[in-house]
Amino acid sequence: MAGGPVTCLSVIGFSLICLKMVASAKTAPQIPTIDQAYSKISNSITVEWATVPGATSYLLTAKDGNTVIETMVANSPGTVTGLKAATLYQITVRSISATGRSQASPPKQAKTVLAAPILEVSSPSPDSILVQWEAVYMAMGFSVSIMRANGLGRIWKENTTNTSLTFSSLDPGTLYTIKAYAWNANGTPGDDSTCNQRTSPRAPANIQVSFDSGALKASVSWAPTEGAFNYTVMALSDSSKLSCSTTISSCTISSLLCGTEYLISVLASNDAGSSKSASAVTLKTVACAPGRVTIQEDRPGHLSVAWSDVELGDYYVAFVKSDDGLEVHCNTSLTQCNFLSECGFTYFISVFAYNKAGQSPLGDVFNYTTAPCCPSDINPVLVSSDRVEIVWSPVRGAELYETKAVDGFNVVECNDTAPACTLSALECDTGYNITVYSFSEVRGSNLSCTSRFITTAPCSPEIKNVSKDAFSAINVRWRPTNDDATYTVTAQGGAGLYRCSSAGESCALGGLPCVPCCPAGLTVSQVTQSVINVTWTVGTGAQTYMAVLESHTGQSKCHTHQNHCLLGCITCGINYTVALKAISATGLTADCAYQSYSSSACCPLGVKLYRLGPNGIRIHWQASRGSANYSIDLYGSKGIFTCAPSAGLSFCDVTEIPCGDVYTVMVSPVAETGLKLTFCPKKIYSVTCSGSTLGMVIYRAKRNAE
Question: PANTHER family under this entry (predicted)?
C-alpha cells in the first residue's frame, strides 16, 4: 500500500522498529521444498528441490553443529562441497530473487559417504600384489578390485573387513590397476581410490657364462624377463663381491681373481623391486701363476725346477727356453720337473697352471745360467825351461779364463779373456798340472775342468868357467842341473859354428868368438790383456837372450834363441821395467837395455745393456784399473754405433738405435795416445721391439762357433 502509514512499535529494552506499509509492496520468493538430499562423494551432498517461480538462484546450507557451509547455485540440483566424510548434516535451501530471499526450507538430513581408503601397494613376489590401507571412519567393510592396466584379461574383486589384501597368481612384471572403496553399515559405498602397481619380475632363466681366461673376465647372458627394467649380475666368492648392471640381457664382469670359485647369479628389477635369485651358476677361474719357483742344478747337466701348489690347478706345464731359442717343456700334475741342461747357457723358466678354464696368467720369468764350459783341447805351442805357452778353443759362456800351473807346492796363475796363456817364471825340468778354468760373472769359475800334465824343458846349465888349453881348444865347464840330460855346447861366430856334447860336466870347443853385442833396438807391444811381445834386433855374438819384465807385483822372464819373446801373467794397468840380456855361446852376458813400460788398461767387467726407451740403449760397465777413458762399439746388421763417454763415467747412452736386432758390444779402454784396445771380450745382446721400454736387455751367450 503505497504511501500507507508507518507503524512504529516501541519495545522496552529493544530498538524501535519501523514498518512502512506500501500499498504496492514486492513480496520475497517462495520457500523451496527439498525433494531429496544425498551424498555420492565424501566431501559433498547433492540437493534436489522443486523450482520456485521467479527465483534466480538458490542458497544451499549444510549445518553440522556449529559449522555452517553455504553454497550458491543457479538451479536444482545443487551440490554443497567442502564437507566432512561420514558426517550427518542438516540441509536447507533458500530461493533468491530480485525482491530478496526466502525463508529457509524445512531441513532435510543427509549424510556424506565414507572417505576413500588411502592405499599402499607393493609386489612382494613376481606373481602377487599386496594392498594395504588404514582404517576408514565408519567403514564396515572394503571392496578391492584389480585388473591389468591395459584393460586386457579378467577383473579380480575381493570384499574384506581387514585393512590389507593380497592378490596372487598374477603375471610377473605386469602393470595392474587397483581400485578400492569402503562401505558403511547400510552398504553404501564410499569414495574409491585408484592406483597402479607393477608386479616384480621373475628371476632370469637360462643363465650362460663365458669365461675369458686371458682378460680374467666373464660374459654372462640370460633369457629376457617380462617387465624387467634392469638386470644385476652378481659374482660372489669367499673373498670378493663383483657385479655389473645392464638394461639388456648380457653383461660382462671384469677384474675376476685367478684361482677363485664364484657363484654367478642374475637379478631382474623394475619399479616394484627385484626378483628373487634363481639357482646360481658356479664359475671356476683359471688358477693363479705358481709361486715360490726354485731352480737347482743338482749336478752338471741336470736342472730341477720346483714350485708351490696353487688353488684350482689341475696340472702344470713348465717351459724352459735357452738363449739360443730352443725350448722344451714338462707337463705334470706334480710340483716339480727335471730338465737336461748344457754348460754355458742361460735358461729362461716359466711355470703355468692349467684347469678347465684355461691357462694361468704369466707369473715371474726366472733365468738360470749354467757354469761356463771347460776347455777340452788344451795344446802347448811352446814349452821352454821357464815358460809354457798353451792355446785352446773358446768355450760357450766363458768371459774369462783362469789358468793355473801347480807343481805340488807352487802355483803360477794367468788370467786372460783370450783363449791362450803364457805361463812364465816356471821352474825348469819340472812337471806341472796345468788347468784352465772358465769363468763367468754370473756363475763364477767352473771348477770341474780337468788338468793336463806338462814338463818344462831342462834347466840351463850354469857355466863354471871357460878356459883355453895348449891346443887352442876352449874348455867349457858347467854345473849340471838336470837328471839324465845331455848337454850341448854351441859356439857360433864369424868363423863358423862349433858344437860339442857331453852327459858330464865339461866339453871342449875351439875358435870361440868374442863377447856378445847388445841389439840395436827393443820394442814392447801388448798382445792380450795378460801377454806382451818383446822384440829386438839381432846382437852380434849373442846366441841367446833373456828378457825380464819386473814390477812391484812380481817378475816375468823368458830365455830364447830368437829375437822375440812372449811374456805372460802380466797384470793390466801396471808400470813395468823391461830389461834384455844378450848371452854369448860361452855364457858371457851383456846387460843391454832398460826400458819402462805400462801395461794396457784392464778390460771392464759387468758390461750390461739397459733400455732407455723405444730406440735408446745405455751401456754400463764396471770401471777397470788403469783407464779413465773408454770407447764403445755396437755392431749390428743395421749399422755400427759408437759411443765415447766423458772421462770418469762408467756408462754411455746410444740413441736412435734400431730395435729388433742382435748387437755385438765391445767396451774398450783407450790409452793416453788415443789407441783403442781390440782384445777385450765381445758380448752379444738381443734388443727386442716388444715388451717394456725400460729395463735390462737380454744377454745372449756366445756359442763355440761364434
Answer: FIBRONECTIN TYPE III DOMAIN-CONTAINING PROTEIN 7 (PTHR47135:SF1)
